């Protein structure tokens, strides 16, 4: 090292300092520089030779060596060109990136090397002509230094270097050796937005587009590098919107498209993919502005990129080109509005009053046209077309009825009564709409299917189940086909498989169900019932490139618009219209309980766009779907696109399939909802969302869920659903069947918590064990049982929560010893469906008030949110009487995560996770809230402890879980989330979840409560206290480890990584005496039961 230090020192011009002191106490210092150039040249050559060694490079730039300062000082003071070139060569060698010069470049920047180079560049340009070799060395160094200097852009601009480099480019267009580093430096300059704008004004774009040209076989490797660098420089310069507009105004976008086509055409061996991708990146930058997108469309860019991309699909290594092309085309695809007259729900329900600041007031107080998704002219056109269709097809509407879709009327009065003489049980319930006029038949017989019979065309003579409620009720007694002959509706014998399902009872339940559209039809799956499959359904493996293929098919609609049928085949907004039936189109229907499909448009022969209805009194929440399809061909691949989904990602991208129910299969003995569909993906589309529906955010788009289905049977009737349907009428049927399971040991009571906005009752269940006798000891034991409060289905689209609740209820009503022990341990208060109206009317999230009921728990309104108001009142009464529930759990479903997990509440973990100033060590908190999730993780195979979270987020403060924890004082207050997809852990890893697994989870929850009782019982705590502490310690043993997946961490919105596109997850009683109770216990139990009349009479005062 000493040799190289001395060599460097000798290479530096010698400096002598003389100090003269005068009598006036002034000190003058004179510096004289004596250059020893022959010696300096020798030492520089010696130093260059020594820098071949990596060890020497490290020593020169090591801390405290002073080597870099000496070299920079030599460069700054050198007056000989050759010496300057030698020093620049030394620096180039020293900070060579390929030799690990990254750190040494940082040393160079920290010692002021950047400013020295820029000053040398500017000063050298003042004496033209500039030395080419000097310019080459300086720019080569600047290319290496620029990215490492965070202030490079500012330094280059302040030193006046921008125009120097730009002029060098301008005058050396054919000198590729010098041109290349100059373009590279321009690219670094342009990373600073101010510099990019300045270069654009100085004509940088025009100069660089002189360099960029079509493919040439004569191009050398250096020339291709120059082209590539020039393209990337354009890319950087056009990062400025002003420069992008300048480039578009000068017509450079069509030029880039032409150049890209040329390179694509000639690069048959794919050796220049980087150049092709860079050209696409420039196009992508220019299309970031509206003017650029218009220029792209005008230049036929969609067709050009579509054609080039389809030619690249077969070569996997060209995926970057295809992906970038796809992004450009999707960005430039003209934004369309949904083909609807308004995005508000088709159905409207008047409210008792509308809160001034609520979502309904905002929705209906908008100026005319603000909420509409088409402009006024489109509305007028649609009206004219509708009128024309009504006139043209009037004869078809009155005279032509297809056999498949003739409704099956299930009258409840003698058939001799005409439709005009029958009065409905309720004015707004189960009454055929005036425009529907279902055909009445004289004789109907419903029978069990005889063994060994097969009639594959039977469904053709069926149609829909239509319920008609008469004055006196009645039974099902008539079915007839079009010709008047008696037909047979063969009901699969599911009684043995489904002990809680009874088709006749279901129809009776439907008659008392009130819906806003006044549904008169019954879906076959709800009537026949569903039997869980014995086989497991694996999570669907995503086929590579399926999303890209679907997007390209969507782009084809614009390119080959003449191939698009655009034929409306189903429309709730125009129910009086008759659609042309040529036998080639599928037929759709959603006019039954929980149904949701607003519009179906046939876009190709076997492809349909589907639009979902908004929640009633709302203009969004498009997620839940449930509809019927018929008139299909077997063996044909049909593609369905639900085009107005709102969530930014979905488990449909990660293996989840839609549910399908085949009536033909049900009749043949397989009444199953099955996972179905291939080529499933979920992606952003070109339909723009109203800013009103998007919460005031502009520029938002809808998402498409697309899936392909091949039907197995001819003339089948199939149903599709987002998840396993569970209707309100099904709940009522199940509750009635459950009550029949009551034994002398079971106390089971059903009350009406309240009446909903839609006029439906909200059931409240009380389940516990009967006291052994009426003795004071047994009554006291009965009264001392802790309360467990359970609820479900506050969000109608989360049907899985109802299946979990079904499992819980079946376990509680079973005769097993564990169930009896559980009943003896607790009094269960259960509200199995908090939002009956939303479930009935096919909503996804809201009630008829147009609001998310799980955000109303802080201040529920008795008129607008009656179920929440009375549920909270009951909880408040329990607290006031010293019966605060031990556990509160609200069952939910999660659309973007796998497994089952819980959200709980913890002050300490909330403070810890939110990085609040308060030290968690100062907070004392009982850790009992973690015990139940821990028990579930040990017992339930679908439960994931790692997905649990106990952080209370501000956005969830009005939810049931948080309000019950904070206001009612329930420490163990939870939301239990069940996946809509499947599991990625445990026994069911890699499988989609089914109703059997969901019901099993409900039963396992009960078993976990039984074990929890051991830990919370005062008598048991003395014996099991140490074990409880061990359990809680197990839960927190990972708490000190950062960045872990544990029950104490935040839960992300989804398990899966994000996709390339932005593919952005809360009273009254009809009390009757129990006939199974001994008479002397009746009065005592009425007083003990929290939902009795005597208690409810006081609950309003508590609220």
UniProtKB/TrEMBL annotation:
Residues 724-1013 form the Peptidase M14 domain. Keywords: Carboxypeptidase, Cytoplasm, Hydrolase, Metal-binding, Metalloprotease, Mitochondrion, Nucleus, Protease, Zinc. Residues 15-24 have a biased composition (Basic residues). Residues 1091-1103 have a biased composition (Polar residues). This is Cytosolic carboxypeptidase 1. It catalyses: (L-glutamyl)(n+1)-gamma-L-glutamyl-L-glutamyl-[protein] + H2O = (L-glutamyl)(n)-gamma-L-glutamyl-L-glutamyl-[protein] + L-glutamate; C-terminal L-alpha-aminoacyl-L-glutamyl-L-glutamyl-[tubulin] + H2O = C-terminal L-alpha-aminoacyl-L-glutamyl-[tubulin] + L-glutamate. Its cofactor is Zn(2+). It comes from Cyprinus carpio (Common carp). GO terms for biological process: proteolysis. InterPro entries: ARM-like (IPR011989), ARM-type_fold (IPR016024), CBPC1/4 (IPR033852), Cytosolic_carboxypeptidase (IPR050821), Pepdidase_M14_N (IPR040626), Peptidase_M14 (IPR000834). Residues 1-24, 375-402, 1064-1103 are annotated as: Disordered. It is found in: Cytoplasm, Cytosol; Mitochondrion; Nucleus. Residues 375-397, 1064-1081 have a biased composition (Acidic residues). GO terms for cellular component: cytosol; mitochondrion; nucleus.
